[in-house]
Amino acid sequence: MTADDFPYLSPSLDDVEGISHTRISCWVHALRDSLYAVGFRDAARALAQPVDFAVERTADGELLTLYGGLETEYHEPRFQRGVTARWETSPDSPEHALDLVERELARGHAVPVSPDLSGMRHSEFYRVPWFGYPHTFLVHGLGPGTVRAADRNTRKSAGFTDNRGTVPSEELRRGLAGAPVLMWDTGTPTTDWADERHALLTRSVRNMTEPESPDQGLAGLGTLPDVLAGLEEHPSRSSVLRMRVSGPLQRQVAGDRHLLAAVLDGDTAPGAREAAELLRASSDGFVELARLTFLLGRSWSAETLGLCAERAARLHDLDSRAVERLAALV
């Protein structure tokens, strides 16, 4: 199988380690499949992040997004099992905007990119004003005038099959000028898994029980009903609930719990299975809350808001119990 034949971002790759692509952020999804393409099969342990929850706001106090452990180290990613990654900025000139991509493709690496998508016609974000964190998709080949890409957020008219298709090179050049590219590598782990596991669990407990602000950890999760209620009069309530609340809950907050549960499934320590079950239940609960907040954005009602508050309270209880189990494993 050549690099171009590899099924990047195909849902079929979820079966490799039981990591559901619907539960992980787009950039983590892109990195997971880039690793699979070079034969790396320990992505769950490599990409797992400490459990977290945070409400992020702008300097003016406006809700920017919610995030979990998958986004805590977004700007300076930190992984395990010898996997390293860093964001680099493409040259500002469209003429040289693909230089980093070409370099990485020459190394045999598919390349996660986060361009300005407002001018890229294949994307569901075409002509959509940017806010929050950028969307990431994969570039896995260059052709004459086109780029071979894998993207899970495309328009039906783009003609992508199984999340793969082509994008005009000039559109990517313009979108990627001055935009982030994720450079990644694999190598021999320099730390024993036992130490990496200890760090994951210790940081999970600390994130949730000793947060740096009242908007983080279990305390931050406790404020979620008020955060949602505070959006009732927001002029862009529907898009905020869809893009800044529902999406992050499903793929960022649910994602870190999903990945760590997958890691603990293979852990033989007493209590690991119980911790995994609680994390999985929490992940499922956040997906359900994401659906409810999406519905709230489409049709605001006191009833749906109340259901959201009930789900949030249950999740606070689940996460509290999961953190207790994680602390016992340290």
Mean pLDDT: 92
Contiguous helical run count: 11
User: How large is the radius of gyration?
Assistant: 20 Å
- The stretches of 5 or more residues where confidence is low (pLDDT under 50) are none
Biggest sheet: strands, sense, closure?
A: 4 strands, antiparallel
Q: Could you give the order of strands across the largest sheet?
A: 4-5-6-7
**What is the percentage of strand-forming residues?**
5-15%
So what's the overall shape? globular
Cα-to-Cα separation, first versus last residue: 42 Å
Helix and strand run: HHEEHEHEEEEHEHHHHHH
- Assign a percent range to the helix content: 40-55%
- Count of extended strands: 8
Quick overview of this protein structure:
This protein has 330 residues and is an alpha+beta fold. The chain has helices at 26-37, 43-47, 69-72, 99-106, 169-176, 193-209, 217-222, 224-229, 237-265, 272-298, 302-329; strands at residues 53-57, 63-68, 84-89, 111-113, 137-143, 146-150, 164-168, 180-185. It contains 11 helices and 8 strands.
How would you describe what is shown here?
This protein has 330 residues and is an alpha+beta fold. Helix content is 45%, strand content 13%. It has helices spanning 26-37, 43-47, 69-72, 99-106, 169-176, 193-209, 217-222, 224-229, 237-265, 272-298, 302-329; strands spanning 53-57, 63-68, 84-89, 111-113, 137-143, 146-150, 164-168, 180-185. The strands form 3 sheets. It has a 4-stranded antiparallel sheet with strand order 4-5-6-7, with helices on both faces. It has a two-stranded antiparallel sheet with strand order 1-2. Strands 3-8 form a two-stranded antiparallel ribbon. A hairpin with a 5-residue loop joins strand 1 (53-57) and strand 2. The termini are far apart.
